[in-house]
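User: I'm putting together a small comparison set for a docking exercise, and I want a reference complex before I start. The sequence is below, and the ligand is iron/sulfur cluster. Could you produce the 3D structure with the ligand included, as structure tokens?
Assistant: Of course. I'll restate your input first, then give the structure tokens for the complex.
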Amino acid sequence: MLTSTETVLLKSRNDKTRSMAQNGRANARLFSQMEDGRSGKAMNQKTVRRILDTIAEMFPDAHCELNHSNPFELTIAVLLSAQCTDETVNRVTKDLFQKYKTPQDYVSVTREELEHDIRRIGLYRNKAKHIQELCRILIDEYGGEVPQTHAELVKLPGVGRKTANVVVSNAFGVPAIAVDTHVERVSKRLGLAAPDDTVLQVEQKLMKRVPKEEWTITHHRLIFFGRYHCKAQSPKCDICPLLDLCREGKARMKPGKPAKLTGKRVKGGT
Ligand code: SF4
């Protein structure tokens, strides 16, 4: 149930999006004219720019929604977020981060106690194991600190490429594009990546197409766009300012035509 403030904010966002959609249709005519006589590459760059500018206008405040106050808490939060929503992680870490402040705190309790403390999170047994192993390595090899390079991070238990990208970009200011379920789905729907691309291919294509200085903020904006607008099961195609360049959106808007779904994998937070 939304609060009245949330309802007003949602309506305001939808009104703004609707207005952008009208502008988008006008832009479509303009872009169509611009396409004439230009190479596909030039058009693609223009299209990418339009997508980036549009999602920036729609979600100017996009940010990491996992609550944390330092790189270590962020690492734990991202590790917990696999196959789980950010809201659930935030509910659990509210108490968890009060009790466990350092890597030593996590290895000072039994596995069962840590499992109990994160039991509301999916795959909590596996995650408790990874957290304790990770904390032991941080203590033994990194002086209790989170390493700052991607190469070191991905060697830690439970830390994959996506988690490492989130940590280096949000905690250490290193440009990176972490591809989660929202980023993957939206990138494929908008044609920034191909439908059959792997997660790594999606990341590589985004890094190629998006200016490096915009990688991190684009990651956040694509997540917001996917989480609040281009949702897995019910994207807001009817008010989408990018409808004219979205094949999936056009298919979904055609009456009686089954949409090609690129939103099957709906689980997962950041
Ligand atoms: S699927 Fe719909 S909401 Fe998503 S980008 Fe395409 S037109 Fe917009």
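Confidence is low (pLDDT under 50) at residues 1-10, 24-43, 264-270. The pocket of iron/sulfur cluster is lined by residues 189-190, 229-230, 235-237, 240, 242-243, 246, 248-249 (CB under 6 Å).
User: Thanks, that's exactly what I needed.
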